Amino acid sequence: MSGLFVTGTDTEIGKTFVSSLLIKILAEEGLRVTGMKPVASGANKVAGVLKNDDALFLMQASNVDADYKSVNPYLFEPAVAPHIAAEQAGVEINLDKIKKCFEQLQTKSDVVVVEGVGGWYAPLSEHTTVADLAETLCIPIILVVGLRLGCLNHALLTAQAIRQSGLPIAGWIANHVEKDFVFENENIKTLKHFLGDFPFIGSVPYALNHDQVTQADQNQSNIKIKEYLHHINKKTLINNFTVKK
Ligand SMILES: Nc1ncnc2c1ncn2[C@@H]1O[C@H](COP(=O)(O)OP(=O)(O)OP(=O)(O)O)[C@@H](O)[C@H]1O
Ligand SMILES: [Mg+2]
To answer: Which one from 15, 24, 37, 234 is the annotated catalytic residue?
Structure first.
């Protein structure tokens, strides 16, 4: 299995935006890359069929044709916490089913970039959280820190919980989700200090166009995955990210 699991300090901090950017950067390196949004709440009708914006955004960035139901096996119409939406719909989110979809996407991809839902401990059922989903997929974790007031505490708490999972840590990314965030360098310096064991993958600037990830966003971000790929055989790198539990 080769993949990356993208989690974040909160909801609405740029997981989808950064995941899409990662997909494009990896694709530019000649890899076949698919995005996945296993669980989503909030849906719109597209040609009469309910779909989720995050899943569509990731699919748009991907360079592999994938069927919607594999990319987004669990979709709930109301934009509420997924375990509540699931309960209301009388559905149990089954992590093994998600793993099967992931493996299916894997057969035609070099890397599957999986976006979590909410933050690391967002519940998926009475018994499971996003952390259990990540453990089921057993792929390296990327922590996206949405730079805004409160992000230091959220980042440190999330990092501690990720460490406890024992999953491989790919690193963290600083995302400029707010246009006028002040003291960004000081905040990044603080995060680098406290997240010492998490490699700093890079930062993503505030983007003017929110509808899609543009070439300018790619050029302006300093995501070091690209550098790693230049130095190490790309497939080996991705496989090295993967550990079997
Ligand atoms: N670097 C950025 N520059 C400008 N806008 C951004 C950036 N990152 C994210 N955004 C915007 O912030 C909003 C939230 O981003 P996004 O949807 O990626 O968050 P998320 O963490 O995936 O949210 P959710 O928990 O709903 O999945 C979106 O409108 C997105 O376009
Ligand atoms: Mg999202």
So the answer is: 37
Counting beta carbons within 10 angstroms of the beta carbon of residue 94, is it exposed (0 to 12), middle (13 to 18) or buried (19 or more)?
middle
**Residues ≥6 apart with Cβ < 8 Å to 45:** 51
Alpha carbon distance 144, 14 (integer Å): 7
What integer pLDDT is reported at residue 129 of this predicted model? 98
49-51 vs 44-46, strand pairing mode: antiparallel
37 is catalytic: yes
C-beta of 118 in contact with ligand 1 (< 6 A): yes
Q: Which structural domains are found in the chain, ordered by start?
A: 3-29+94-241 (3.40.50.300)
**CA atoms of 128 and 135, how far apart (whole Å):** 11
The pLDDT tens digits of the residues spanning 147-196 come to 999 999 999 999 999 999 999 999 999 999 999 999 999 999 999 999 99
Angle at Cα 63 formed by Cα 60 and Cα 66, nearest 5°? 75
Ligand 1 center–CA 207 separation, angstroms:
10
Mutate to test the pocket of ligand 1, among 16, 25, 121 (most ligand atoms within 8 A of CB): 16
Q: How many A from CA of 4 to the centre of ligand 2?
A: 15
pLDDT value for 216: 76
pTM of the prediction?
0.92
